[in-house]
Write a structure and sequence with these properties.
The chain has nine helices and four strands; from the N terminus they run ββααααααααββα. It is mainly alpha-helical.
Length: 226
Amino acid sequence: MRSIQIGSFVLNGQLILYFSFGAAGWLMLQYRLRNMPERGLILSCVSNAFWLWLIVWKASYLLFHPVEVIQQPVSFIYFDGGERGKWMASLVAAVYIWQKALKQNIPLKMWVDIFITYAFAGWSACQVLLFMIGEEPAWFHAASAGLTAVLFMSFLFSSRGSDSPIGLAYAIWFSIGHVMLWFLVPDRSMWLLSFSKQQLIFLLVATGLTGWAWLDEKVKKGGSHG
């Protein structure tokens, strides 16, 4: 995402995008958890994970480009760790949430629902923002926002009263849907066969979540037979 200029101010487009993601996800969680006693604990954990992700992503530039930072310290302010920094930040944030989840007596279903709520709300906000500023392809961001919004609304209604992590199914459809959307982008960069990098990532996510859902169902059937 390119930088956004407002008058004489030049804003970092990626930071605005990530702040929009975090704010939308946090606000949606705050609303959805409004009647839950664990609300404060969960919001605190999610907020800390978001800020941790952001700090690691920015600070990873120092790890990957130490010479540039030493020669020009100001570069640390304007640059970040890029794609590698995002993966590192995501791993750190995931480990942080996992450790917090182990210490709290909160069911797995609730954590899955929390993640889906946060991620779907944040993703929708980002896609709407990208569409509004004219990021190409604009139709793709509009379609992505629409697909996510439909899945999100369906998830919010269907997850009520369910004892299983139903969010996994919606995350799988979200991933498959975006694989199909990327096929409609003619100038995408091919990585493997006719798949782009983004499509391969979504495919891996869908495969991993499908395996998780299958194991969860198998464990439940085994427990009921026992």
